[in-house]
Amino acid sequence: MNSSNEENFGVYIHFPFCKRKCYYCDFYSVGSSFADWESFASAVEHEFASRHIPEDAVVSLYLGGGTPSLAPTELIGRFRAMIRNKVGEFTIEVNPDDVTEVKARGWKEAGVNRVSMGVQSLDDSELKLIGRRHDSATARRAYTILRRFFTNISLDLIFGLPGQTMESFGTTLDGFLEMRPEHISAYSLMYEERTALTRMRDSGKIDEIGEEDSVEMFRLLSRRLGEAGYERYEISNYSLSGFHSHHNSNYWKGIPYVGLGPSAHSYDGHATRSFNAPDLSLYIKEWNGDDKHVSCITKEKGVKISLATEKPAGKLIETEHLSNDELREEMVMTRLRMAEGLNLSEYRGRFGDSAYRLLLRQAERYIRSGALYHPVSETLALTEEGVMISDEVMASLF
After folding, report:
1. Could you give the count of Cα atoms lying within 13 Å of 394 in the half-sphere of its Cβ?
2. pLDDT tens-digit map of 80-97
3. CA 358 to CA 345: how far, in whole Å?
4. Could you give the angle at the alpha carbon of 20 between the alpha carbons of 17 and 24, nearest 5°?
5. How far apart are CA 234 and CA 245, in angstroms?
6. Cβ contacts of residue 109 below 8 Å, gap of 6+?
7. Cα(203)–Cα(252) distance, rounded to whole angstroms?
């Protein structure tokens, strides 16, 4: 594989199908009854071919959604075969109630070497309230099956759920630590616009727990996982040694990525992003048509990544070019998410001395308060206390 970050990037494929949408989810998806797997696979293959990706450039493949675990295992192997070089990390997101021994074996044979399972909670009443399809027993059983085939498993966890208590959250943590996955992604519940959970809250059907309770849950999470040998390497992600998510880490480091499928995003590593329309019918129609003609955006350095198509791009693909200010803000936001922090020499090299000096002036009060640490001249990073107010800190540095 190429060693230069300019020539390495990840591929993400969005599977837009769900049996039932979770009440808190705002990702694009349609019902699984609309899943024409052959048409979907063909469209993804056509889109991938249009990107003109060098065979040795892809370092990671991530299947997300939606619910990739609903797909036939043959399709998973088909997408892996699209990428001819050896991929270091190949992740599939799965739901616990989709996991069977037959499927797990099929994923393994298709080349998957990392599984991310959405557990969220091990309290059945909490799972029911947020619209999850599984219960705690199903999650534990699925984990046992996956462990027979995989040595790199990530579990998703949500805290701050309606009705959740410190006791119930502690019980969920006990269960996670008993299973001991290599990686845990832990998120504070967000009430996104237009989700069922937000409507339930606004109509008084559920109560949102207080911010102080969520903060205490985060403190408990960090302490318990730290004591168990997990490292928090990003605001929401913890892993045992050697098991960071390389694909997601590359997002935060600004390394290029290509998103395939309806609603997927791409980034050329410099200043251009593209967004596929969240429209399955349009996506399949356009990419499976006979008159495709795709133009390429060629970077000054590195690989060619197509971020636009001459088929009706206004409908299918939207492209935006980030300003210098937007690039500075994005670098601050993504790098401070990581425990290793923002490399100030890199920041200064990209944006100049005046931007560097302004950043340090803006950061000064948070360094004094203990929310940021600046142990050497080359680094600026959030402390554990700073993580609690990360949105405030990042916005102030913009």
Report:
1. 20
2. 999 988 899 999 999 999
3. 14
4. 100
5. 10
6. 73, 77
7. 37
3-state secondary structure the chain: CCCCHHHCEEEEEEECEECCCCCCCCCCCEEHHHCCHHHHHHHHHHHHHHCCCCCCCEEEEEEEECCHHHCCHHHHHHHHHHCCCCCCEEEEEECHHHCCHHHHHHHHHCCCCEEEEEEECCCHHHHHHCCCCCCHHHHHHHHHHHHHHCCCEEEEEEECCCCCCHHHHHHHHHHHHHHCCCEEEEEECCCCCCCHHHHHHHCCCCCCCCHHHHHHHHHHHHHHHHHCCCEEEECCEEECCCCCCHHHHHHHCCCCEEEECCCCEEECCCCEEEEECCCHHHHHHHHCCCCCCCCCEECCCCCEECCCCCCCHHHHEEEEECCHHHHHHHHHHHHHHECCCEEHHHHHHHHCHHHHHHHHHHHHHHHHHCCEECCCCCEEEECHHHHHCHHHHHHHHC
pLDDT tens for 135-183 read 999 999 999 999 999 999 999 999 999 999 999 999 999 999 999 999 9
| Two tokens, residue 201 | 């809250």
Query: Computed over its alpha carbons, how large is the radius of gyration of the chain?
Result: 21
pLDDT in tens, 227-253: 999 999 999 999 999 999 999 999 999
pTM: 0.91
- pLDDT of 372 strictly over 70: yes
Q: How far is CA 268 from CA 276, 278, 299, in A?
A: 14, 20, 8
> For the chain, first and last CA: distance in Å?
36
| Strand partners of residue 18 | 31
Task: Give yes or no for a contact between 334 and 253, defined as CB atoms under 8 angstroms apart.
Answer: yes
Mean pLDDT taken over the chain: 90
CA–CA gap between residue 293 and residue 37 (Å, rounded)? 24
**CB 233: neighbour CB atoms within 10 A?**
18
Evaluate the CA torsion angle 106, 107, 111, 113 in order and state its sign: negative
